[in-house]
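Ticket #4471: structure output looks truncated?

Reporter: J.K.
Steps to reproduce: submitted the chain below (447 residues) through the standard prediction queue, then opened the result file.
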Amino acid sequence: MKIVFLEVDTERSWALASVGPGFLGAVLRRAGHEVALVRAPLDASDDEVVAAVAAQAPGLLGLSLTTRQWLRGRRLVAALRRDPATVHVPVIAGGLHPTFSPEEVLASDGFDWVCLGEGEGALLDLVTALEAGQPTDRIANIWKRGISVRPPTRPPVEPLEQLPFLARDLLDEARGVVHMATQRGCPFPCTYCAARMYNELYEQVGGEYGRRRPVEDVVSELQGLRAKGDLSYVIFLDDTFTIHHPWVRRFCELYPAQVGVPFSLHARVETVSEPLLHQLRAAGCDQVTYGVESGSERVRREIMKRPVTNQRFRDVFRWTREAGIRLTANFMLGLPGETKAELQQTLQLAEELEVADFGYFVFYPYPGTALFRLCRDQGYLPADYPERPANHRASILQLPGLSNEDIAAVYDGFTALRRRLFRARYGVELPEDSPATEHVELLAATG
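Returned output as attached by the reporter:
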């Protein structure tokens, strides 16, 4: 069977497609199936996307969707259903939004199944059943339209190294900049992030959802890319690369000699030490992204469940600079329970930390998170919130004590600060509408 993944661009055309299809496509190809990717760029009309899908003649269409991608993805699938060339193409959706809002997805025109959680084994079972003409209503992790009972949950893939390496032609990587995931799961209880919620999803089948590939497996994949001449820089996508120090130290031993190209990663200040940062730098790390989120210790501790002090950020940022590693940070504005003064503290801390670049986002409550449930239960969500785009530039919440004007003023302050710091550090103007991650990739590829 031919399986086509539809990548839905939103707000801007990203350099990287969803990673999920890269894992799924590799498993499907190993089983003898044909896999392809169709991208829906921002400037493509619905009819153009439908024509591109029809040209691939898929036996099954798959979408990996975040909440930000959901509304456009829903519209495109509805358009596929209206076109004679694609009206009968079966459709499955997976990813964060379908996993935590499956009823909403299945109630929308054109979606035949959703995949809840990990999809490698589930999607392969679905494709096998479709080819054999067998029923698809009893496949673990696969919820079929019209079936009222949730499917059983299969155990997560264990060990991760049994999976084939990513099907990289499904990622649209360019200039030798590749993206790597070394682990699944997150041990931290952050209330704004859905990653932790996967642990709850898999509690019923026992075991730990958190798993990591052996260092040797990660290095082997990168060696293969280098041997083909497809490697100039590595961006590690793990939410927290520095969780397990023995793993990181082993990585630092093997990576320089066996891979030897610069790399970037995400870390939490609670999970690094001064010596570890120097080890990472010696191994080739030239950029780290930290989540600061709020400048208020109370907001981090009580609302976000991140009990870390501002002094820890000051210390770790200093250690990172002294190790010769560039810094990027992320900040969040307009959380439920945040005050106007605490919102201002976030901008003040960002200015004090003087990072090379940073992302700043107005809080949006994603389904599956603890803060989504809080916003829903407290009546902060507008009645039409499912129809509102999940953007990070303006709040959709109706918050007591914090107006949209308050949030917008601090957002504008972040914009001005980022442009000023970028100009001072690099001597050029920051491109319009440039996200921090995009800037880091550009610098990585061009030096």
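Triage note (M.O.): checked the attachment and the full token line is present. The chain has 16 helices and 14 strands.
Status: closed, working as intended.
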